[in-house]
Amino acid sequence: MINLKYEDQEVIFKENDDANSFFVITKGKVVITIPGKPKLSLGTGESFGEQSFVENQVRIGTACADRMTHCLSIGRDVVKNILGDRISNITNYNITK
Fold first, then answer.
1. Which residue positions in the chain have pLDDT lower than 70?
2. Does pTM surpass 0.85?
3. Cα-only R_g, the chain
């Protein structure tokens, strides 16, 4: 896990980037923009980027800090060591929100 800090309006990842980690917001806000869908605003305690991460695909949207934001970046190796196959349960939960 890596603690990362993003300035207001800084891009965290772009559509079509490789998905080698997912993120948990520890402070601040992130806006997710996916073509053809309404913007999604996420705050402290919420995660993002896990769908493409789990499916081992490129990012389907762009994530941008909506103010000074702190995130934990969690890589594939960490997730496999801690959660194993249970990560799909978490992803399915977040998709249904």
1. 85-97
2. no
3. 13
* C-alpha dihedral (96, 55, 76, 68), degrees to nearest 10: -50
Token digits of residue 85: 């196959």
Which residue do the tokens 């800084």 mark? 10
- Tell me if 16 sits within 8 A of 62, measured CB to CB: no
CB 67 within 8 A of CB 32: no
- Alpha helices (H) in the chain, listed in sequence order: 50-54, 76-82, 87-95
For the chain, where are the E strands, in sequence order? 2-6, 11-13, 21-27, 29-33, 40-43, 47-48, 62-65, 69-75
- Looking at residue 79, what is its pLDDT? 74
